[in-house]
Every structure is written in C-alpha cells, then in structure tokens.
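Regression test case RT-17, inverse folding.

Input:
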C-alpha cells in the first residue's frame, strides 16, 4: 500500500512517515501543495494525507484540484483548526475524512486503515490470475485454494504484478510502488523479492506465473 503525505512541517512529516512505514506502508512526502499535486498526478496512492496549511497552495485548493483532475484516492485532511465550519469546508472540497492536530498516532493509523479499505471498495478488492487469488481487503493470497503466507513487501509486489497483469512491469515501477522515494535503486532487493515470490507462488506448481522479461522487467501470467 502506498501513501502520499503532504506536510510542510519537517518534524511532523518525519514522525508520521516513520509511523506509517512501521506499518509496512510505502510513503512519499511532499512539503508543498504543488509537489503534492505532481506526485498525486503521477502515482496512484491508496490514501493521501493532506495538511491544510501549506506554504504555497493551501490544502483546500490542493484537494479541489485533485478531484478536478479525477484523482479519486481517499484524502485525510490534517489541520490544527477545529471549528465545525472549517471541517465542513474541507469535506466539501472533496476530503473523505478530517483529523485535527494534535492527534494520537493510533487514531491516525486507524483512519488510514479505514480509508484504504474504502479505496479498495472503489476498485477491485480481489485480484486473480489463473488459480492465483489475492484478497486485498483481508491481505490474503491463495493458489489453488492453498493459503500463501506473504510479508508486507511480498504482498505489495504481488499486488502490483496482478494489477498490471499480463503487462510487463518495469523494475523502476516496482521500486516506486513497493518501496518509496528513499529506496536505493542500486541494490538488488527487487530481484531478491521476486525470487522469494517465485518460491512461494511457483515452486510447487507446473504452471509458472512469474516471468522475467530480460531488459524490460517482470510479468505475471501464463507463459506466452
């Protein structure tokens, strides 16, 4: 799962991002409204956390522009304001939920989980390829009816391959979806996780589903 955090206060952004990453979310951080719009336009996020007070474009304008552009990721508005009228203004701008600072991190994480579930309900909650099935809501994978235990990163990788199947997914896209902008792209971690998935998804089956396309990336589906 991938989260966009638009927050200009560096200490607050670092605290929230660390808490989300500890819950296995990939997190991108933008410190201005313009940068947040750029990231949200280029990347599909499961949830967007949007501060109301930003140094360039305020959060209300950012939210309105996201909706105008057709970005339907759930938005959680973060603000120090607590008046009912201002909360209503945020919701009317297109936000899905509203959280007033200061807040308990446990409540933030609960709100994020709820919005991620809501986002899944807007799209396909279950992904399939042949006898492989991924339940995105329950975070459960099965092949041929047999449960496959996955780590959070393995789940995110398999989710991406299934979302794009049977297309080729470039290595760079895997890095962006499964990890975040701080990931060291020079490591072989992508290859390591692909091999781990193969051991769990393909090892005991005659039909292999995960394929390397040399020089291009990886593809999930039956052999062409």
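Golden output:
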């Amino acid at each position: 799962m991938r989260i966009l955090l638009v927050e200009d206060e560096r200490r607050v952004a670092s605290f929230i991002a660390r808490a989300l990453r500890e819950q296995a979310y990939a997190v991108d951080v933008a410190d201005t409204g313009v940068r947040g719009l750029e990231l949200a336009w280029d990347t599909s996020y499961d949830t967007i956390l949007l501060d109301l007070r930003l140094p360039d474009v305020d959060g209300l304008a950012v939210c309105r522009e996201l909706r105008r552009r057709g970005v339907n990721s759930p938005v959680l508005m973060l603000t120090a304001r607590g008046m009912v009228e201002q909360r209503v203004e945020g919701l009317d701008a297109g936000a899905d939920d509203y959280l007033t600072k200061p807040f308990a991190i446990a409540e933030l994480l609960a709100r994020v989980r709820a919005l991620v579930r809501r986002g899944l309900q807007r799209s396909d909650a279950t992904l399939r390829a042949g006898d492989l099935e991924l339940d995105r809501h329950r975070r459960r994978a099965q092949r041929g009816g047999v449960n496959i235990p996955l780590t959070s990163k393995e789940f995110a990788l398999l989710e991406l391959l299934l979302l794009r199947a049977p297309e080729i997914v470039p290595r760079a896209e895997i890095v962006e979806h499964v990890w975040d902008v701080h990931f060291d792209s020079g490591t072989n971690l992508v290859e390591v996780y692909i091999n781990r998935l193969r051991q769990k998804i393909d090892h005991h089956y005659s039909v292999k589903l995960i394929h390397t396309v040399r020089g291009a990336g990886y593809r999930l589906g039956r052999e062409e």
